[in-house]
Amino acid sequence: MTILILAVGSYGDVLPLVGMARQLQQRGHIVTVFTSAHFTELVHKAGVEFVAMGTADDYDAMANNPALWHPHKGWRLIMKRLVSSALEETYSLLKSKVIQGNTILVSST
Hints:
Blueprint: E1 2-6, H1 11-26, E2 30-35, H2 40-46, E3 49-52, H3 56-63, H4 73-95, E4 103-107
Parallel strand pairs: 1-2, 1-4, 2-3
């Protein structure tokens, strides 16, 4: 089975999905983790295939933006920067790894 894992967020969001990816790969599945280049070393240490989405600088700029932590502005910033601007690229990257009838997509909320 081909398993594509889309891991968006901070270490608390990404680390559990990378751990799951490693376990799935050890059980014989073909696993690819799609996440920010900020997590390149983490995913490589897990020994799982990695596809970068955005740069480490993009991640740092977002994480260091005070609006991200504002109760009303944070969600708007996430939707603008992560969702609407990266949707097409994310879809294309995921689609390039799909094997019809043999692929599962995993992501967090």
